[in-house]
Amino acid sequence: RKISEKHDRVFATGCLNPEEAAKQPRANAAFVVLARNQELEGVVQSLKSIERHFNRWFHYPYVFLNDGDFSEEFISGVQNYTSGKTEFGKIDPSMWGFPDWVDHEVAKEGINKQGDAVIMYGGMESYHHMCRFYSGFFYKHELLEKYEWYWRLEPEIKYFCDITYDPFVEMARNNKTYGFTIAVKELKETVPNIFRYAAAYKRKYKVNSQGLWEMFLEPQPEQTKETEDTREKTIPNVILETEAGHQNIPEIDPDNMEGEKYNMCHFWSNFEIARLDWFRSQEYNDFFNMMDRSGGFWMERWGDAPIHSLAAGALLAPKDIHYFRDFGYRHTTIQHCPANAPARQSPNIPYLEKTTLNEKERIEEDEYWATANLDPPKENGVGCR
Ligand code: GDP
Ligand code: MN
């Protein structure tokens, strides 16, 4: 909370006139939608929502990506609901699936074990590939080359409020790199070793964090000089030096890593508005490569959300991050609702909200938003609901 208020302000309060805002020049930006043909219906739901609440005024283009071929049905299906230009891209196998340097059998075995352990999506090979694609490759796709900014859109999401200004333009004007709507805690069993590698990256590349790293740390009791010294000796300088990667995740007590422990907090990446050049930077790619070589995308089920978040923690400052606290947004059972957001904030972790809804609460929230009149619709039909 302190971090967000000190370094980051809401871009606009209340509803502006989007038709006025849309007279300004656009940013060099696009929506990015990764999807499979069978997700058409969910994608259309998301398109209807973003068009109704934003893109009917701003007409940003869409880039649809798929590891397979999009069907004619999918292409014409989404084009019925998009007011901006659409492009459809196939993802090259070099960006999806197991790379040459990994033993495919070992990786598959690792994935099967996670399935046996009932880790969420752990046994689903395609999900691992999707997470790795969104961690280290989407920004290299040829259809994104010409863009400076992207806004990630997933199937079956919902925006509740009209977005009456151009968030890309505001991100640029305010010198922001990465924007989010929801921060939540990751399922521990999907990332048992992720933090050790992220911390090892910081040491190996001598990265001095700029204050955001602390957001991802469990609060620590005051340490005595003595315990710090002991810790120093038990930490290897670089954990990962072998290219064999996945077979060599060393068993080191994560609690002994510089005395730092990951609090599992991460920006939920199914929504993101961010600068592509940050992902394309040498620093980010060094980070991704080091994480990748560990094999954690297969031997564990690292999501792209904690990857993006820990990279941000290592490489960005709080002032580079924007919390879109004014966007009403839902993905499956978790949502951010601007009306009551402050009350939901956790005092310990800036940004973190309690946002999980059960079915009954979800229906209640839907009814609430259907009737709420927080900011009465203006003549042009704009309203925050
Ligand atoms: P969740 O949000 O973590 O429950 O995961 P999703 O199933 O929504 O997947 C995240 C995103 O990746 C969505 O945009 C999906 O459409 C997309 N996605 C997941 N798996 C695949 C896949 O195997 N192929 C393609 N083309 N897209 C996928
Ligand atoms: Mn999803």
Question: What features would you highlight for this structure?
Answer:
single chain, 385 residues, alpha/beta, Spore Coat Polysaccharide Biosynthesis Protein SpsA, Chain A, 3-stranded antiparallel beta sheet, 12 strands, disordered C terminus, binds guanosine-5'-diphosphate, binds manganese (II) ion, transmembrane helix, membrane, transferase, O-glycoside alpha-1,2-mannosyltransferase 4
Tell me about this structure.
There is one protein chain. The chain is an alpha/beta fold. The chain has one domain (2-371): Alpha-Beta Complex (Spore Coat Polysaccharide Biosynthesis Protein SpsA, Chain A), CATH 3.90.550. It is built from 15 helices and 12 strands. It has helices at residues 2-7, 18-21, 40-58, 72-79, 104-116, 125-136, 167-173, 194-204, 225-234, 276-280, 282-293, 296-299, 304-315, 341-344, 359-371, and strands spanning 29-34, 62-66, 86-90, 149-152, 157-159, 178-180, 183-185, 265-267, 272-275, 321-323, 329-331, 334-336. The chain has a 7-stranded mixed beta sheet with strand order 3-2-1-4-9-6-10. It has a 3-stranded antiparallel beta sheet with strand order 5-11-12. Helix 4 links the parallel strand 2 and strand 3. Helix 8 (194-204) runs parallel beside helix 13. The longest helix is centred in the first third of the chain and has 19 residues, at 40-58. Residues 229-255, 341-345 and 372-385 have low confidence and may be disordered. It comes from Lithohypha guttulata. Belongs to the glycosyltransferase 15 family. This is O-glycoside alpha-1,2-mannosyltransferase 4. Keywords: Glycosyltransferase, Membrane, Transferase, Transmembrane, Transmembrane helix.
